[in-house]
Amino acid sequence: MTVVDETEVLSSLIGDIYDASLDSSLWRDVLGKIKGFVGGQAAALAWKDAVAKRGDSFYDDGGVPAQFRQLYFERYIKLDPCTTGQFFAEIGQPISTADIIPYNEFLETRFYQEWARPQGLIDVIMSLLDRSQTSMAFLGIFLHERDGLADHDKRRRMRLIVPHVRRAVLIGKLLDQTTGEAATFADTVDGINASMFLVDADGRIAHANVAGHKMLSEGDMLREVGRRLVSIDPQTDLPMREAFAAASRGDVNIGTNGIALPLTAANGDHYAAHILPLTAGARRQAGASYAAVAAVFVNKASLSCPSPPEVIAKSYNLTPTELRVLLSIVEVGGVPEVAEVLGIAESTVKTHLKRLYAKSGARRQADLVKIVGSFANPLNP
C-alpha cells in the first residue's frame, strides 16, 4: 500500500468509525475494514475482567469461527496469558503477545496449543480503549500465520486508528443508541444524562440539550460567551477550540487529541469532554440543520481505582508473566498444577517462582498466598 493509498483508506476508515458511534450495527463491517488496514485475520471490540477471568465481545467481524469464540470465553480466557498482562498496558498504545510473555513460552501454553494453533493464529495486536478497577475494553486484531507477527508497520497503523475507535466507543457508550437514524440525533441526545452541545467551527453553540443548558446556567466549568462555548480553564479552552476547528476540516483532521479533554468544575469535580465530528457520512445529517461541525458530550469522569493485581504488580515490580504465576499459585495450587493450567513446563514455573521469592521476600508458596490476601479489597464480598 502506497502512502497516498494509505492516506485515502485511513480517511475513509475514520469516517466509518465515527459513523459507527451513531449506528452500532455498522461495527461488524467497520472491524472488517480495520483488520484489513492493520493486516490481520480477525478483529473484535471486547471486554475482559482481569480478576474474574471472564469477558465477552461487544462486536466482532466474524473472523474467529463461532465455536472458537464460544470456547474462548467459556474456557480459554482463563488460560490466555494476555488476559492479565494487557490490563497493565497504557491506554491507546498497541501491544502484542511478546510484550506480555516471552514468545517461546507462549508457544508452550495450552492456550496456543489448543485454541490459537488449530486456527493458524500466531499473535494478537491490541490496544486498551478504557479501563476500570478490574475490567478493560480493548480493540484486538488476531494475526494468522500468513499475516506474520506484529511488527513496526502493524503497530504504526494500529496507532493511527485507535484514538478514533476509542472516541467512537466512548461517545457510543454515552448515547447508548439502538438505532442509526441520524435524523433523530437531536431528539436522542436531548434525553441523555450527559451534557451535549452542537457547535460550529468557531465554537458557536447551535444546539444544547437540557443537561447542557443547565451546565451553562451554573457556569462553574463551561460558559456561553458571545454565543461561543468556552471553558473557564484557559488550558482546556485552547485545545477545545482547536478541536472544533479541526472537526470542520474533516474526520481525519481531528487527530489524536480531544478524546477526553479534562474539565474541572469550581468545586473540584472532574469531567471529560468527548468531541464527535459531524462533517461527513451519516453524521452530516445530524448537524446539517444546525450548521454544526461537532457534537461535544460532557460527563463526570469516574474515579478509576487500581485493582489489587495492579497494586501487587507495581509494589513488587512484577512482570505480567510473574503476576500470572503468582495469581495461579493462589488460585490453583502447586507447581505441577500451575504448569498444567498455564500450559508451560514445570521448570518455567519454578524459574518464575524463584523470581517471585526474590522480589517479594517470601520463602515459600504459603507466604505468597498471604501477600496476595493482604491486598484483597475489604469492600469486596
Q: What CATH architecture of the largest domain do you see?
A: 2-Layer Sandwich
Number of domains: 3
Radius of gyration: 23 Å
| Uncertain parts | 178-183, 377-381
Name of the level-1 CATH class of the largest domain: Alpha Beta
Percent of residues in helices comes to 40-55%
Total number of helical segments?
16
Question: Could you characterize what this model shows?
Answer:
Residues 178-183 and 377-381 have low confidence and may be disordered. The longest helix is centred in the middle third of the chain and has 24 residues, at 152-175. It is built from 16 helices and 12 strands. The protein has helices spanning 3-22, 27-38, 66-74, 82-85, 103-106, 110-116, 152-175, 185-190, 210-218, 234-248, 283-288, 308-316, 320-331, 335-342, 346-360, 365-374, and strands at 42-49, 54-60, 95-96, 121-131, 135-144, 195-199, 205-208, 222-225, 228-231, 261-264, 270-277, 294-300. The radius of gyration is 23 Å and the shape is globular. The strands form 3 sheets. The chain has a 5-stranded antiparallel sheet. It has 3 domains: 3-175, Beta-Lactamase (2-Layer Sandwich); 182-300, Beta-Lactamase, CATH 3.30.450; 308-374, Arc Repressor Mutant, subunit A (Orthogonal Bundle), CATH 1.10.10. Helix 1 (3-22) packs antiparallel against helix 2 and helix 14 packs across helix 15. With 381 residues, the protein is α+β, with helices and mostly antiparallel strands.
